[in-house]
UniProtKB/TrEMBL annotation, chain A:
GO terms for biological process: phosphoenolpyruvate-dependent sugar phosphotransferase system. This is Phosphocarrier protein HPr. It comes from the Bacteria. Keywords: Cytoplasm, Phosphotransferase system. Gene3D superfamilies: HPr-like. It comes from Marinisporobacter balticus.
UniProtKB/TrEMBL annotation, chain B:
Its EC number is 2.7.3.9. Mg(2+) binds at residues 429, 453. GO terms for cellular component: cytoplasm. The active site is at 187 (tele-phosphohistidine intermediate), 500 (proton donor). It is an enzyme of class 2 (transferase). NCBIfam families: PTS_I_fam. Residues 251-538 form the PEP-utilising enzyme C-terminal domain. This is Phosphoenolpyruvate-protein phosphotransferase. Residues 151-223 form the PEP-utilising enzyme mobile domain. It comes from the Bacteria. It catalyses: L-histidyl-[protein] + phosphoenolpyruvate = N(pros)-phospho-L-histidyl-[protein] + pyruvate. One of its GO terms (molecular function) is phosphoenolpyruvate-protein phosphotransferase activity. The lineage of its organism: Bacteria, Bacillati, Bacillota, Clostridia, Peptostreptococcales. Transmembrane segments: none annotated.
């Protein structure tokens, strides 16, 4: 299961939203990765996620593999759409 | 006596505690019992998490949730699968010692973050290093100096303070900080101001110059440190300390109050800032806005010019956070004593009289246009006022306004929004501009007098030259007459006149400026409450007379004496 989405919150994926994202991703058993700009990283790793330096309007692909992959992708995309309640 | 950069006001006297985090000196070793090594690593991580959990709890109780968030992030780093699994893999597959394996992994990340474009992200490298050092010391069973349990009152002497140091320390027992490195906007400086603990940073080698048995007195405002002071010196510092504390206590009362004299003359007390990080200080000191946002810092400590986007972010953050309070942003003032590593300026005989500020911007229009675009775009997020530095003639001012209009026209074509009414003003820091301020006032919405340069140009005194420093005097009648003239010329054209040099926050100068009719005083945020307190105790009608009296005097000395007597 995979889905492409855009970062919507104005300040991008800095520490606070990134940690919320990682916490949610860690809650799923599926392996979850993020693809951006030719890089593919583990979405459960805060450092990997931050190292992508995601800004507003950057397009990312969320890829999940495992039992709860559908829920995982839906939930994470939803989180991004919620702009992390910024 | 030693001198550093005064980072947080206040006086401290006391014994020292020197924290020398000696370099770890990690060696690569081959380990046969990898299972045992792995457990050693996991145990160290567990201890680190316990420590950080305590730090976080303490921080959230004493500093608030947002300050505690940084330790939440540190804890998350320790739960990072890439870091944990990566280290364990290295221990198992390469038979490496735990500390070496862990350091290799964290160094990789530190390198990635240090290379990032965004300054905020680059600073995260320090967080990873902070966590990494803690785990490494725990792996090696080293004692981590726990600042939360101090036996006596101390002045901390260290290379630099980490976020966890400042969060855990027993604030009751820490009298002050002195650090080797750091500037006014470094973490230590910001935390010290937010905790209201006196501090001096950038003392270079203070950790080497001081012995653990030394006694120290220092002044966090002036940056002076006295090692093993004499009886007289101790007395002097003690009375300074008492006076300072009395003054601070009185100041809490003026928070949230208007800056108005007894007889109703209201002025604006605003802050000088360099980066969005200074917002904290502005809020804490109840600033009524920003009178000088020095944009140079966005250009410094970088490899290339900041992009339009980066600048937009830095302006927007401040505008949005202070909206609807006014924010005066000054366009790039580089050259003189401020250089950029990526912009080559030929050696000059007199850099302060040379290729700098607006002169440079008008010659390298691309740099200027990028900044103006970012400013205009950010204008929709708050109350922006744009200010141009170093204008010396009307031609220059008109040319600058022309460029601004061109950039606006470009944005119009692209359908990009900017605020309708953006006030445009200029610094008055060149004597020729002050003298023709009657003409210039017809073309701007405000003046802001930059006294640091105005004094040095008016008196022909290089303010960096210690031999002639005594000639650099804000009380010089020539300087005061120019200031009065600028204020009057501004008022004749119905524009407001502010001041953003050191003088604007100087308590012995404020009554004169108030009496001259200055509308806006911009100063370092910590000077705002004392200034408000002073203004609220003044009578405008009396200060007008004071200003008149002062303007009729012959020498700086007479004026200074007169003002000193007035204070009493």
């Amino acid at each position: 299961m995979e889905k492409t989405t855009k970062i919507m919150n104005t300040s991008g994926l800095h520490a606070r939203p990134a940690s919320i994202f990682v916490k949610m991703a860690t809650g799923f058993t599926s392996a979850i990765n993020i693809e951006f700009n030719g890089k593919n990283v583990n979405a459960k790793s805060i450092m990997n996620l931050l190292s992508l330096g995601l800004k507003k309007d950057d397009e990312i692909k969320i890829i999940a593999n495992g039992e709860d992959e559908v829920e995982a992708v839906e939930a994470l995309v939803g989180l991004i759409h919620s702009k992390f309640s910024e | 006596m030693l001198f550093g950069k005064g980072a947080s006001e206040g006086i401290a006297l006391g014994k020292v505690l020197i924290i020398k985090n000696d370099p770890l000196g990690i060696e690569k070793k081959r380990i046969e019992e990898t299972e045992k090594e792995k457990n050693k690593f996991l145990e160290a991580v567990k201890i680190s998490k316990d420590q950080l959990g305590k730090v976080r709890d303490k921080a959230s109780k004493e500093l608030g949730m947002d300050k505690a968030a940084i330790f939440e992030a540190h804890l998350m780093i320790l739960e990072d699968p890439e870091l944990m699994d990566g280290t364990i893999n290295k221990i198992e597959a390469e038979k490496l010692n735990a500390d070496y394996a862990f350091k290799q992994i964290t160094d990789q990340f530190i390198e990635i973050f240090e290379a990032m474009e965004n300054a905020y992200m680059r600073e995260r490298a320090a967080d990873i290093k902070d966590v990494s050092d803690r785990v490494l010391r725990n792996i090696r069973g080293e004692k981590i100096v726990d600042l939360s349990i101090l036996e006596e009152d101390v002045i901390l002497i260290t290379n630099d303070l980490t976020p966890s140091d400042t969060a855990t320390m027993d604030k009751e027992k820490v009298l002050g900080f002195l650090t080797n490195i750091g500037g006014n906007t470094s973490h230590t400086a910001i935390m010290a101001r937010s905790l209201e603990i006196p501090a001096i940073v950038g003392l270079k080698d203070i950790t080497e110059r001081i012995n653990s048995s030394d006694f120290i007195a220092f002044n966090g405002k002036t940056g002076e440190v006295v090692i093993n002071p004499s009886h007289e010196e101790i007395e002097k510092y003690q009375s300074l300390k008492i006076a300072y504390e009395k003054e601070r206590k009185a100041l809490g009362h003026v928070k949230g109050k208007v800056s108005k004299t007894i007889d109703g003359r209201e002025v604006e007390l605003v802050g000088n800032i360099g980066t969005p990080k200074d917002l904290l200080g502005l809020k804490k000191n109840d600033a009524e806005g920003v009178g000088l946002y020095r944009t140079e810092f966005i250009y410094m400590n970088k490899e290339t010019f900041p992009t339009e986007e980066e600048q937009f972010d830095a302006y927007k953050e401040v505008l949005e956070s202070l909206n609807p309070k006014p924010v005066v942003i000054r366009t790039l003032d580089i050259g003189g004593d401020k250089k950029l590593p990526y912009l080559k300026i030929d050696e000059e005989m007199n850099p302060f009289l040379g290729y700098r500020a607006i002169r440079l911007c008008l010659n390298e229009k691309k740099i200027f246009e990028t900044q103006l675009r970012a400013l205009l775009r950010a204008s929709v997020h708050g109350n922006l006022k744009i200010m141009f530095p170093m204008i010396s003639s009307l031609e220059e001012l008109l040319e600058v306004k022309q460029v601004l209009n061109e950039v606006k026209a470009d944005l119009d074509k692209e359908g990009i929004a900017y605020a309708d009414k953006i006030e445009v003003g200029m610094m008055i820091e060149v004597p020729s501009a002050a003298i023709i301020s009657d003409i210039l006032a017809k073309h701007v919405n405000f003046f802001s007098i930059g006294t640091n340069d105005l004094i040095q140009y008016t008196c022909a005194v290089d303010r960096m030259n210690e031999k002639i420093h005594h000639l650099y005097n804000p009380f010089h009648p020539g300087v005061l007459r120019l200031i009065k003239m600028v204020i009057d010329n501004g008022h004749k054209e119905n524009i407001w006149v502010g001041m953003c040099g050191e003088m604007a926050g100087d308590p012995s100068m404020i009554p004169i400026l108030l009496g001259m009719g200055l509308d806006e005083f911009s100063m370092s945020p910590s000077a705002i409450l004392p200034a408000r307190n002073l203004i609220r105790a003044c009578k405008y009608e009396d200060m007008k007379k004071t200003a008149e009296a002062v303007l009729s005097m012959d020498t700086a000395e007479q004026i200074e004496d007169y003002m000193k007597n007035l204070e009493k």
